[in-house]
Design a protein that fits this description.
mainly alpha; about 70% helix
Amino acid sequence: MVFSSQIFLFYFLPLVLALYYALPFRARTALIAISSYVFYGWANPIWAVIMFFGCSVDYVCGRLLLRLSGLPDEGGLPPVIGPEVPRTRAMKTVLVVSIVTNLGLLAVFKYTGFVAENVNAMAAFMGLGDGLVPVLHLALPVGISFYTFKAMSYAIDVYRGDARPMRRFADYMCFEAFFPDLVAGPIIRYASMEEQMRARQHTLEKFARGVAFFALGMGKKILLANPMGHIADTAFAAGPAHALDAWFGVIGYAFQIYFDFSGYSDMAIGLALMLGFVLMQNFDSPYKSASITEFWRRWHISLSTWLRDYLYIPLGGNRKGPRRTMVNLMTVMLLGGLWHGASWNFVVWGGIHGSMLALERRLGAAHLLRRLPRALSVAATFLVVCISWVFFRAKTLGQALVYLGSMFGLAATTPASDVAAGALYTPYHGAMFVVCGALVWGMPNTWQLTERLSAPRALWATATLALATLVMWTQTTNPFLYFQF
C-alpha cells in the first residue's frame, strides 16, 4: 500500500484514525500493530509473515536478556539492564541470535543473487566454468532494509541498557511494524520510541502539524518528484547524450530523489504525529550543505546516525588514530552503499562518499571548501553529490560510465540523443525544474515550515494537499523510490 494512493487516503487512513481515537489508550498499540500488518501485507501477505517471524525472535530475545540479567520483573515497568549488571556469555549469545536473525533474513532476500552472480563471474574468469552456483531471484520484501535496522536497535538498546524491554508482544509488534515509517523510514530507534509506547500526548496542535507534514510531503511526491522522475528517466534511458542534456537529467534526478524520499519522510512523520508519536527529523535541507560531511548531517539523518552509533563508534570511530578513522569511515560508507542495494553501483556510490568524508577529515581546517565563499562551497558539494547520484541511478556500471562521459562531453552522441532531448525540454517539466531549484535553495524545509503553523501556512498546506490529490487521480501508481531498498 502506498501513502499517495486512493485506497490509503480515502479508506485505510480514515478508518485507522477513527478506530484509534475511539479505543482506550491500552488498546491503541494493538490496533496500530494489526493495521500495520494489514498495510504491509496488502501487496504480498508473505512479506507480513516474514516480518512476523523476525519480530517474534526479537521479542523473545528481549525477554531473555532481561531474564538472564537476573533483575526482578514483577509487575510495573520492566527494569533497565544497567551498567551494574555484568553482561554474561549467555546474554551476548542472545544478542548475537537477534542480530544474525535480522541480518540473515536481509541477506537471503537481498544479497543471495548478488553473491551468486559474482561467484559465477569469478569462476568463469578463472576458467572453472559457467553457472557454478545457482542464482536465486527472490522477491525482495518492500522496505526490508529499513525495518531490519529498526529491529536490530531493539536487542542492542536493551543489551546496552539504553531502554527497557517490552513486556507485551503487541507493544513490540507496534514498534517494529509501525506503518508510518515501515517501508522507507525514518529509521526509528527503539530507545527513542520505548517511552512513547507507554505514554504520549494527543493534542490538536500535534495533529494539525501532522496533517501539514503529510500534506506537504504528498505535494513533494506528486507535484515535484514525479515530474523530475520524467526528466531523469528520459535522460538515463537515452544512452550517450549531449552534455547539457546529461546534466539536466542528473540534476533532475537529484531533485527527484530528494523530494521523493523527503516527501515520504514528511508523510511518515505527519502520520506518526496524528497518532501521538514524535519521530526524528530525517532531512535538513541537504543540498544547502557546504561539504560532504555537512551533507551527511542533513541527508537521511536517521540512517547516518544509525550507522554512526551502531557501526562507526563500535568499530572505534575516531578514537584509534587518523588512519583507523579513515578506514572506519570508508567501511561504514561502503556498507551503507550495500545497504541501499545489492549492486556494485551502490558500492561505488558509497565509496565516493566515504572517500570524500575521509579526505575532508584528513584536511580539516585546510579543506579548500572551507575557504571558499559559502555559495561556491555549496555548489561544489552539490556537484560531487550529483556525480555520485549517477552511480545510484544507473542500472549498471557500464551505463554509469557512459552517462558520466556524456556529462563531460566525452560520449559520441547519436540521432537518438536529439530525439531524447526533445522529450526532456517540455515547458511543464522545465518550469517544474526551476520551481524545484527555488524550493531547494530558497525556501525553508518542511520541519521549519510546520514548527509554527500560522493560518497562511495551514492554508498553503491545505491547498497543496488538494492539488496533489487531484493530480494523483491523473497518474498511475507511482511507488516511492526507496521502496526498492
